[in-house]
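FORM 7B - TANDEM STRUCTURE REPORT

SECTION 1: FIRST PROTEIN
SEQUENCE AND TOKENS:
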Amino acid sequence: MTETSATYTIGEPGEWGSVVERLRLTLALRSEAAVARELGFASPAWANRKKSGSLPWDRIIALCLERGISVDYLLTGRESETQHSAAEAVTIDESLLEDVLVAVEAELTRRKVTLPADRRARVVAWLYGEYKKGARQDERAFRAFMDLLCP
């Protein structure tokens, strides 16, 4: 991964430490610096992220999907009923994931809607899964889905 990473507002302010700590524990890493390296960040770039409170959600979600880590757990600290084992890890289409993240974020911004972090992550994960399974990426269908989610 490169040093740049998209910024998304999936999380809430102040959740940086909790999410990073749960990620560190889940990956059995010794330090936050090791988490940064796992996500592909050098120390200065990670320090800038931490200072701004901006979690690299594109990389975190991709890592979770690759390693079978529950995004719900990282966000809330609660286990998910659908958590996968590491043996069930899947291949991630990073371009598709980024497209889904950008589309959801843009639509929520357009609608001036704020969803709780866990719900927003579930929306992204569900849409990504549907598109990955071959669902047609149709703008009208996407907007209809978002209409149901946040009228």
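SECTION 2: SECOND PROTEIN
SEQUENCE AND TOKENS:
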Amino acid sequence: MSKRIVLILEECRILREEWRSWLMADGFHVLSTSDQRVALSWVKRFRPAFVIANTRLAPIDGFQFCRLLRNHRDTQSIPVALVSEDWEKRGRVRAELSGAVAVLQSGLNRHHFLDEIYDHLLIEEETTGTARERRTFLSSLVG
């Protein structure tokens, strides 16, 4: 698994670009697409450390995409966060059952977005020093 690669599977180009810029500013390599087939091939080829997938994709939605990763030995350990505009209790349960490690509400600010990812990302200690310092600084600003 590549420690610094994040895959974004999102239909909205504006969100993909915004999240990409936030992640790249924090030192990540980012792969982003709206095509599920492309995303699946990238997961197999690059083994990202984290995947962010929208729940409203078609023909394979984020829940199904997450289950696909969970059902394969080579990808089952990759953390997946699902993104939605509106989260009811039923949606959160469905996300948990599909194997998602986090539920991100669309519209998170940069700090909360990165915080959610770092909470679930498996990165070795030596690669997180600068990021941890940045998170501490951002946390002090938010309060």
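SECTION 3: OBSERVATIONS ON SECOND PROTEIN
The chain has one domain: 5-142.
The domain at 5-142 is CATH 3.40.50.2300 (Rossmann fold).

SECTION 4: SIGNATURE
Preparer initials: ____
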